[in-house]
Amino acid sequence: MTTVLHTRWRVMARSGRVLRFGLVLALALLTQASAIAQPESLSVDVAIPERGYVGDSVPLIVTVQGSREAQQPAWPQIDGAEIGFLRSEDRSSSFTMSINGQTTTRRTITMVMVYEVRFDRTGVFEIPAIDVVVGAGPSARRLTSQPARIRIEEPTEDPEFGLEFMIESTRVFVGQPVLATLTWIVGKPVRNVRVSLPFDPLIARLVPGPSSTPTRSSTTGSRGAVRSDPRQFETTLNGQPVTARIDERVVGGTRRQALTVDVVFIPQRSGRLSVGPARVDYDAVIGQRPRRFTDAPWDDLSILERQASIASPVDITVLPLPADSRPANFSGLVGRYEIASSSRPVSASVGEPIELTVTVKGPHPISLVPALDLASQMTRSEPLLRIPADPILPNLDGGVARFDVRVRARSDQVREIPPIGLTYFDPVDEAYRTAWSNPIPISIHGSASIGLPDDDDGDSGPTGTTEAEIVRRELPGGMADIHRSGLDGRPILLDRRISGLSLSWLGAAAVAPAFMYAAGFVGIGLARWWRSDANALRLRRARRRALTSVQAIVGGDVGVADAGSVLTTLIGDCAGTEGQAITAREAMDALPTSLPVQLRARVTALIDSTEWEFAPDAAEGRDRITKVELRSLIDRIVRCWKQASLATSVSPKQGAA
Q: Residue 237's beta-bridge partner residues?
């Protein structure tokens, strides 16, 4: 009896464990199924900052929860505001958690549409509720957002700052380049300087002046190469990069620094025009906040306030060009221009090429100079010179437009290359003028005229200096023989290398496949070696370039902005991109993960300081690091990068070994 009861108890206990396990498993499956099958609720939200400033681009973000198939909404017209679409982003995420064998998965589907809004007046603006269509077809749903509000304010004006806007002439002609100058007196340390000059592109063109045009070594901001001239400042004019000059002015008996930007204004229609108002928007440093425990020693503690300097607009009168006396070959240029020409060689034979160079000088921008049409200037009644039939485009070199063309003499009667003319309108004399280049004396050898075609593929009649001699002269020596053949006796080129085919050539042709086969093996080996050593070579070049930039800086220490530029370029070179094409944020993200935390914070702060800090007392030596510390940072970054490259290049088998 006891044995039977014990056996029944064990069976019941075992069945109870099975029952409990089944209940737990069923509960987990139901929980998992409910977590996966439960549809995510659909919603839309519109977010915009509470405050903005006139002329700034304010972000407007539309967030759609629960679907990736949202369509862009149709925005209503908002008086005083302009909305532009930037991009769409998929910000969906997934989260999985396992506790005591129970796994829970949560998925969030989020789609974000980013817009920018520009306001041109002050006031409280309301972004009305919008409808966003999610999905397509019969299952499409319409979601409605809540309205949003933003207050737009005008930046304050500080009397310690001043802006002057001057135009060299208020009475101009259509198409005349007019130089305008903006001079900004700086009274305090500032950040994020932006210059703007509103204009209608249908009424006028606006280009940077000759001293404000960015060069290759002077990129937007200070995130490119190290600035070679400390008296230049990189800013933007209407969103485009320009270079401002830094000098000093005496205002009220006090010496202050000033920024000067030159622009060229080119009116496109006649009438009375108003240029401006010109303005400079900036963030002024109005104080320093107390240092917190979490602040690093190099953190910027400045308190910023948005301010602006505004200059009154300037009215100009634009006159039309006179139509009664306009020549037929008018080039369209307005201003005073000069033209010159030169050639080499000055002595040649009939049919030999002569390099002709024509240069045009005039007001900025020199890109206004049109293509040069020599065929319309050199008459064809006496075709003694062979010239291109199509207009020639200029090569812009600084403030000069250069035309390079090849001409040939058709006869030994040619004594000179005739003058070349350029017709323009002189706004000072208010008359059309023609500038002429100097005639170029040349000496042409040959006893009779030679007929050369207008294109390079044709040929023409009898020659004193024979066509065969011209062809032989222009071919490399030893390449061809010329023989008379055919009914018309015209020259035929026979290649000596083909006519002299011998057994040696046949032997070379026989061993060529074997040679190519061996060369292929060698090439594969070299390619493998190059791929294995490409990272080390790139890092050595990046380090050498960074140290060269540090060495080029005058003095024993380096400004933080310049140091950040060197480090940004170094990281771009180490990552295999062009240093000047990488942003500060990309440089921070590209830092090796093996970099120590303190060192990473120091490098990140230096890179972040590349946002220009223009202050009157910047020359006193504040916010600078030594060259020794900068070289140490460069070496440690390259060393960590090399270690990361070696770690990623190890195969799984090598890692296990």
A: 195, 240
pLDDT category at 432 given cuts 50, 70, 90 is very high
Question: CB neighbours (10 Å) of residue 521?
Answer: 9
Beta strands in 384-501 (DSSP E): 385-386, 395-397, 400-409, 416-417, 421-426, 431-436, 440-441, 443-445, 480-484, 491-495
Both ends of the chain: CA-CA distance in Å? 65
* 244 touches 231 (CB < 8 A): no
Q: Judge contact between 225 and 217, C-beta under 8 A.
A: yes
Query: Nearest-CA neighbor of 108 among 188, 29, 43?
Result: 43
Nearest 5°: phi and psi at 160?
-75, -10
Residue 602 near residue 563, CB atoms below 8 Å:
no
Could you tell me if residue 238 is left (phi over 0), alpha (psi between -120 and 50 degrees) or otherwise beta?
left
As beta bridge partners, residue 65 has: 43, 110
Q: Measuring CA to CA, which residue among 106, 160, 219 is closest to residue 582? A: 219
pLDDT beyond 50 at 221 = no
What are residue 60's DSSP bridge partners?
A: 115
Q: Indicate whether 366 pLDDT > 60.
A: yes
Tens of pLDDT, residues 156-193: 888 888 899 988 888 999 989 999 999 999 888 888 88
Q: For residues 491 and 493, what is the distance between their CA atoms, to the nearest angstrom?
A: 7
Instruction: Give 214's contacts (C-beta < 8 A, 6+ positions apart).
Output: 208, 220, 234, 241, 242, 243
pLDDT in tens, 92-114: 888 777 777 777 777 888 889 99
The pLDDT value recorded for residue 379 is 60
Residue 22 CA, distance from chain mean position: 65
- The Cα–Cα gap between 657 and 257 comes to 65
As given in the structure block, the two tokens for residue 633 are 């940072």
Amino acid 647: pLDDT: 56
Annotate 556-567 with DSSP letters as a single string: SEEEHHHHHHHH
Mean pLDDT of the chain: 75
Would you mind telling me the total number of residues written for the chain in this entry? 657
Q: Is residue 19 scored above 60 in pLDDT?
A: no
Q: What is the pLDDT of residue 338?
A: 92
Overall pTM > 0.90: no
Task: Using the Cα atoms of residue 590, residue 592, residue 597 and residue 600 in order, give the sign of their dihedral.
Answer: negative
d(CA 434, CA 422): 5
β-strand pairing of 232-237 with 131-134 = unpaired
Q: Which tokens in the block code for residue 213?
A: 């045009």
Q: Residue 307: is its pLDDT beyond 80?
A: yes
Pairwise CA distance, residues 60 & 145, whole Å: 13
Q: Identify the residue whose tokens are 């030994």.
A: 412
Bridge partners of 276? none
Three-class DSSP labels, 602-631: HHHHHHHCCCCEECCCHHHCCCEEEHHHHH
Residue the block writes with tokens 């439960």: 38
3-state secondary structure of 383: coil
Token match 């589907």: residue? 109
User: Which residues are CB-contacts of 580 (< 8 A; sequence separation ≥ 6)?
Assistant: 219, 223, 224, 225, 569, 572
